[in-house]
Design goal:
The chain is built from twelve helices and no strands. The termini are far apart.
Amino acid sequence: MNYMEEKLQRIKDIVEEELSCSAHNIEHVMRVYNLCLSLAKDEPKIDLFILKTSALLHDIARVKEDEDDTGMTDHAVLGAEMAGKILTNLGYTSEQIVKIKHCIITHRFRSGREPQTSEAKILFDADKLDVLGAIGIARLFMIAGQYGEKIYSDVPIEEYIRENLVCGKPDGRIKDISKHAPNIEFETKFKRIPGRLFTKRAREIAVIKLEYMKEFYENLRREIKGELIWMRSRTFSRSEINKMKY
């Protein structure tokens, strides 16, 4: 194990100790880490050491945000601060720390902060891909169980946004989590993800994963209503993928 790998392993150990939230644990971190490496293969001039470090640390403050009942803690902002201290102790240079903190502070979908570097854009995309598809559905229901959300809500989406999201905007924070549901998160947030992604490969993956989720929630809606009708998943061609709009 070389010097850089030793640093990365130490960071992984620190992160694993820090995280306990079921949907944002070390397994999520490592999926994002691996997605980052996959997306980086299609992008030029990527600093893999910066990217790997950023991926490992991007959710370091997630539990602290979840435990803050005031809703004032932003895990991206606090995470960048925490990362700075960890990286300083591990001997990262000032330039490396600035780059990594930028990746962390801009990775959040609802933050409004735009990633500026290639590494930050890849981390943003990888983190979003992990909330889509089969793993995205599984994570949504883990969170629903953790916070007492509904299994499904048939409320009109515009009405829900107006009444239960801050400022009545789709990207507003949730006021009353008990009124939320996985299908609402899909409608208010996840459908907007492809249009926010930076890399071509991530956008292609995202639309396929969204089609899978759309089919799942339609099946769930029908089954809740007692309808015994199922839609079946299928493979999409590249031309079909390019025509998908979200």
